[in-house]
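Marked as duplicate of an earlier ticket. Keeping the data here for the record.
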Amino acid sequence: MRIGRRSGPLLDDLLLNLRLKLSDEDRRILVEHFIKERTLADIGNRLGLKPATAQKRSVRALEKLLLFN
């Protein structure tokens, strides 16, 4: 994922929202999936979760970010 210079404040807001609104595990799932581009199955295996559980947690975490933004 490439981030341009102009996205600084936007990225800062996103990272702050991630830190304030999500649990450590939910934040890790989103970072691993969207930044590091890992599959939810891989993330689930790394965290000891079923792939479906990792997928549900990622959806719920995104909903939290959108709902409280």
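See parent ticket for discussion. DSSP finds four helices and no strands in the chain.
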